[in-house]
Write a structure and sequence with these properties.
The protein is an alpha/beta fold. The protein contains four helices and four strands; from the N terminus they run ααββααββ. A four-stranded mixed beta sheet has the order 1-2-3-4. The radius of gyration is 17 Å and the shape is elongated.
Length: 107
């Protein structure tokens, strides 16, 4: 472990990939720690908020973009575990307008 820590400390941070490589044990505590997309909640991944939760939170599976933004601002989207991310697609009528990301990276 000490050898890996030493090597990580030698990395010159020039972009998001090198930043992630330089923090192998603690992560960056940012969205950079999310390394992929998953169908269900998994460490270091973003996943869609489950349909049943969308129904419960918004009364629809196609919530208005403004409603999703308010839910994020009011901390209504909960149930996050450390190192997990979620996303919700916000709509304007039937047209997808934005993807909203929330997550919990680190402390």
């Amino acid at each position: 472990m000490s050898r890996a820590a030493w090597r990580a400390a030698q990395i010159e941070v020039t972009d998001s990939n090198s930043l992630l490589a330089s923090q192998p044990f603690s992560g960056t505590h940012s969205i950079i720690d999310m390394t992929g997309v998953s169908a269900t909640s998994a460490p270091h991944m973003v996943a869609p908020v489950p349909a049943e939760e969308l129904d419960e939170l918004f009364g629809t599976r196609r919530p208005a973009a403004t409603t999703v933004a308010e839910a994020i601002e009011n901390s209504t989207l909960t149930g996050l575990e450390r190192w997990h991310g979620r996303y919700v697609i916000g709509y304007d009528g039937d047209v997808p307008r934005a993807i909203y990301f929330v997550g919990y990276s680190g402390d």
